[in-house]
Fold each of these.
Amino acid sequence: MNLSFIGLPGWFPVRTADDVEAWMNLLEEHLRLVRALDEEKAEEAELLEAYRDFVSGGDWRALLLFFAGYGMTLFRARERAAQRAASMPSPKQSLLEVLVVKGYPHYAEIVRNPGFQAIAKAMRLATVAEQYHKARGQQVFAIHYDLFQKLKQHARFPDQLLAIVMDFVAEYNRENARREEQLARKGQGGRRRPNITTGEVEQFVALFDAHRQHSEALALLLIAYASSREDRTAEGEAAVEAATGEAADDADVYTVPIDEA
């Protein structure tokens, strides 16, 4: 394939066969997401406008607004409109990372930071993952419905944003401790979540201090990562089920019981 005759966007360098494959996977992923949106709905029309701004001008803020906004829209739809949610696929975290790392390497340090990854995963477990368990009658932890909105509202105010993240970390770990106590009293197994460690918090805070001027991007990336779907192998699915006694959650097969629709 002669790439010199193909009009590719400047924000995603394509130099190798692996780059071509990554680009094709991203294109397919983006088509899935964009085609699921309805321009007749004001909120979704704004997402499409943000995506167009990114594609036409390489505006990375617009892209982050798109992915964060898409995740927030899907999160709300799952709670309020079962049929609408079923028609909206979840973004794949692995492809989002490829896009960020390849397209805007400056943000690679953020998404590859162990503290960022741990907190984003905890946020996912406390939002979309627990929402999934609720739909199956298996909720055991609180669902932090307002978390994404608070992150977005305070994204441009570094001190406020950091306070919100740290409050979430403290509450998330407290919920885990209460769960451990409950299971210990009953003397039985059950679904658990990993704590956010002190080391991971320190890594995140150091990252945050180094990127204070990019606090909005960091907040939007947290939302985008927390609301995306983790890729799982068959072995990973089996390990989760063996450890918890429950099938691993998969946002693409999310269903809502009739009485919650």
Amino acid sequence: MTNELAETRKSLLAKATVRMPQPTSDPVERFVERVNAQIVMAKEAKAQKDINTRSAWFRKLGAIYSVKIGRAAMDMGNGKTLFAADDLDEVVTILEEAKTLIRGDEKLKAQIRKHAADRSERLKRGKKK
């Protein structure tokens, strides 16, 4: 083996020993990670980068943005599931506030856990067919 290949192998193996972060099994933390992904997506949209609008939790409706928390528009309290934002900065603010609320509100945590358990059950039933 040439010296260059040996160095390349050494470099590659050094990188392979780095452990990747393990995904969390807590539905609430997974949901918070999804909120973070939406925040990044809103910032990319503001920077006029291409985003996958099908997976975005925010939509441009005329002069405002409609924002939902989660794919199924989670009830954030008092039956509120949709929020209006004047611009993408306000979309980010709404998502940040939702993240803070989720981390501190036991009812929202329970709602997320129930939704995750229900979805898991539906998926398991679908596999049995």
Amino acid sequence: MKEYAYSTLDIAWIIDGMTLGCRRQYQVMETIWQKEKTYLELKYLESYRRFVLEIQYWMHYLHEKNLLDQEFTVIQQEIAALNGSLQAEDYQRDFLGLDLFFKQARIRILYGYRKDYVKIKLRTLLKEYGYKRRSQNLVLHIQDCMEVYGLEATLRGGVPCNIAEVGLDAMLTFRVIENM
């Protein structure tokens, strides 16, 4: 389950993409902390304050990412001169992991927008995350993510579907399964 946990960077990216007001952002953070504990990294279960501060840190980073990326080498040199260390991978992460789509879908459905679903074409989903084909491993990963985050995919009219069998141009509707 650890590989499927929400990081504070994931949550910051998702909340930032929802374009909420400041008050609503904090409400979403509090609700996630209260109701999604099974998905949180262990270090955040004890301290709501730490959880919120780290999300806020990443949200500020996302707003200033281009500027910080330009100055990253200088920052590394200055920290090294002070006998400090900086883990570059924390700041150079690729934000487009496929599992992030499913984390985002769950949070948007449960706590964000007023819709109880997320719609996307399968072709668009794969393209957005850099995939051209639907391999067996990719389908298994998608199915694992759907199971872990309690999502189901249906076609138009609420017809249940199997990701491995639907056409690439099928419009998928993801919903949270009620009895999780």
Amino acid sequence: MSVVDAHARITHGPEADAGRGRSSGKIPAVHDRPRHLFWTPRSPKSSSGGGDGRVAWVDSLRFLGMLAIYIGHFGQVGGKLYPFVFLYHVPLFFIAAGFFARADESIAATAVRLARRLLAPYVFFALLYTITLVLFNDWPWEKTQAALTAFAVGIRNQTPAGSLWFLPCLFIVAIAHAVVLRFTRNPLAGLAFGAGCLLISQHGLTANPLATPSWALNADSALYYVFWYALGHAAFPLLRRVVHHAWFPAVGIAAVAAAVWLYFCGTAPMFAALQRFPMGRVQALAATGLGVLPVIVVVVANIAIARAIEGVQLLRALGRRTMLLCGMEDFTKLVLPQAMLMIGLKLQLIHPLGVVLFSFVCMWVAGIAAGGVLLLYAPRWSGLRAPVMNLDAGTRSPQVAEAKSQSPLGNL
């Protein structure tokens, strides 16, 4: 599900303004910051995003989440990875998107901004993949029309591109949460609203939207995922502080150990304890509450890993482009094997290791190779924004433009 590049822009006072070039009227170029090709040594500045105003570990976290999305969409060939990543990967992205939810603009302005940042790329990537399918399958007009109609309605599990459902769903989630924030100005009120929506989605509808979504633009799925979005918004101020504490690695190690246990054992042993509750509504409510716990544990494990790898430039670069990775996933997984066939190479995925390796290759192709082309020729439609002039060198600097033009929701 790329499901979501939540933009990691934060302010640290006058020092940050000077670091971004506001005091001198200059836009800092990427090459002005000393770094290695693939690794930047960890420092307090790198953890807070450095001169480009991003939070490094959030970019790394989004990379980990997108890798889980790519792995999960390969299905059963992923072995135990398949059910494991489906345990948490979509909630993780809604949590990350909620990190930077805004309450400082009108609802109308929020709707316009989100439509440009989420729905416009949804239309672009839907058309791109539809054209690809028409050529790949030699579709007649009837099949093409059916695909376009499915994209227009936007119901998860019914569109030809499985990962694109996240964008309209995030639009609904963010609008609903923004309305609550606008009137309450309280993240805890947003979290309470999200918890209520989660309960409605699991116990108040005729069909569970996680299994059988049926509302346009995934509005029924949004009832479930708005809780995770609100949780990210409410928890982020605390997370920003605790990830730098000396004791956080111990918490991270414990969470990773618990995640390993969940990988091998699954959640069945946890839910077996619910047999003590009487059958009916009480047991169902207890199952819903218990189902939140393993997701949070694995998300904390991912945050700990993201902190550990935040110095890897390549992974952070991919994490900055999760909008692109989400939109290009199905396209890349279809086109790349066909390109390999043209030079006599046949792809065969037969074990989880192959799934992980090929998922990373697909992410690189979608985020770096295709991303460079789209940044130049379709930046706004692909969610990357347009390049700007580097005032120091007098040349175009797409990377700086991408970093400088981010909104709180990010590229996804």
